[in-house]
């Protein structure tokens, strides 16, 4: 039905707004729909604030969050994502995942001044508190949402000073959730009505082969790498950064790609053109995905 991305500075009151929004939406939906609030603090994720202390831990946390989002997305669900979601590239990934299952996308921006966030953060205890250094770093890195880009639109801004969400805003959010525009999936990643019976096997085999080729060929200098999805097919070119891409990093990216592709196969959505589930088609999409992720 819809995916609602909550974004804002750390310690800006996002969790409180997410809970208020969940309570409102639960009263509006009928029995056939479900409102799910996915928080970093949920038992299934348990992402600590300390995960944002270094880039390696943060990447793992974002990967776990994205995997959970993909798993919970459904045409019969309103999914609220309570997390910093401060990187526009990550919000775009969420948008793409929602687009693949044809659910509406809504962005809620919780706006609070940095000084207020600092005060609220100091009131927190234990694992719920950001370190002062991490908090300041996240302030600097925050990328504000914009209604001018499709992955942040429609965009609703909530002020920290309001005790509750204004009713007019709640009604507008409900309108976007219930009747808003559904973005069509990209024609390069949409399945036909029936994927081949061996699509899953080809998906796993091809992505694993490409991953093995990357590990064998890289020397830490980066640049263009030539890969082959299967014998007899034209080679594919992948540009990697000037460093050694680790096996855990590749494995995590492979899981994300395979999870999205599996959902496309299962749902059997229809769009302009059809998906090529051959080794060549899977390999081309996987290489494009890897190049986008590794260059971030």
CATH class of the largest domain: Alpha Beta
CATH superfamily annotation of the largest domain: P-loop containing nucleotide triphosphate hydrolases
Counted by DSSP, the helix tally is: 9
Mean pLDDT metric: 88
> From N to C, what is the helix and strand string?
EHEHEHEHHEHHEEHH
Structural class: alpha/beta
Strand order of the largest sheet: 2-3-1-4-5
Compute the separation of the termini in Å: 30 Å
Overall 3D geometry?
globular
Radius of gyration, in Å, reads: 20 Å
The CATH architecture of the largest domain can be named as 3-Layer(aba) Sandwich
Residue windows where pLDDT falls under 50 for at least 5 positions: 187-193, 269-273
User: Helix content range of the residues, please?
Assistant: 40-55%
User: How many separate domains?
Assistant: 2
Q: Mind summarizing the main beta sheet?
A: 5 strands, parallel
Number of strands: 7
What share of residues are in beta strands? 5-15%
The CATH topology of the largest domain is what? Rossmann fold
Oligomer: single chain
Supply the key terms.
KTI12/PSTK, 296 residues, 2 domains, nucleotide-binding, Rossmann fold, 9 helices, single chain, two-stranded antiparallel sheet, Chromatin associated protein KTI12, ATP binding, alpha/beta
Q: How does this model look, in words?
A:
With 296 residues, the protein is of the alpha/beta class. It folds into 2 domains: 2-179, 3-Layer(aba) Sandwich (Rossmann fold), CATH 3.40.50; 199-294, no CATH class. The protein has helices at 14-28, 55-72, 88-100, 114-123, 132-141, 167-179, 199-217, 247-267, 279-294, and strands spanning 2-8, 34-39, 77-82, 104-111, 155-159, 223-227, 236-240. The chain has a 5-stranded parallel sheet with strand order 2-3-1-4-5, with helices on both faces. Helix 2 runs parallel beside helix 3 (88-100), helix 2 runs parallel beside helix 8 (247-267) and helix 7 packs antiparallel against helix 8 (247-267). Residues 187-193 and 269-273 have low confidence and may be disordered.
């Amino acid at each position: 039905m819809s995916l609602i991305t909550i974004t804002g500075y750390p310690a800006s009151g996002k969790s409180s707004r997410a809970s208020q929004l969940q309570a409102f939406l639960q009263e509006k939906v009928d029995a056939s729909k479900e409102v799910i609030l996915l928080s970093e603090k949920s038992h299934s994720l348990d992402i600590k604030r300390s995960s944002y202390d270094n880039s390696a831990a943060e990447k793992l946390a974002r990967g776990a969050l994205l995997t959970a989002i993909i798993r919970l997305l459904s045409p019969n669900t309103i999914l609220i994502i309570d997390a910093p979601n401060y990187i526009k590239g990550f919000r775009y990934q969420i948008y793409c995942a929602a687009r693949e299952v044809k659910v509406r996308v809504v962005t809620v921006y919780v706006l609070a001044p940095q000084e207020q966030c600092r005060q609220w953060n100091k009131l927190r205890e234990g694992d719920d508190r950001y370190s002062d250094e991490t908090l300041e770093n996240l302030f600097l890195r925050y990328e504000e949402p914009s209604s001018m880009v499709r992955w942040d639109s429609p965009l609703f801004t909530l002020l920290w000073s309001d005790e509750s969400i204004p009713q007019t805003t709640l009604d507008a959010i409900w309108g976007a959730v219930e009747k808003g525009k559904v973005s069509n999936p990209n024609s390069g990643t949409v399945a036909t009505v029936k994927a081949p019976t061996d699509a899953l096997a080809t998906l796993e085999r091809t992505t694993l082969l490409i991953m093995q080729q990357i590990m064998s060929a890289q020397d830490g200098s980066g640049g263009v790498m030539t890969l082959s999805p299967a014998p007899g097919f034209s080679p594919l070119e992948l540009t990697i950064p000037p460093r050694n891409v680790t096996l855990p990093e590749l494995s995590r990216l492979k899981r994300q790609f395979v999870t999205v592709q599996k959902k496309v196969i299962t749902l059997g959505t229809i769009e302009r053109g059809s998906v090529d589930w051959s080794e060549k088609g899977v390999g081309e999409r996987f290489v494009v995905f890897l190049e986008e992720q590794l260059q971030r």
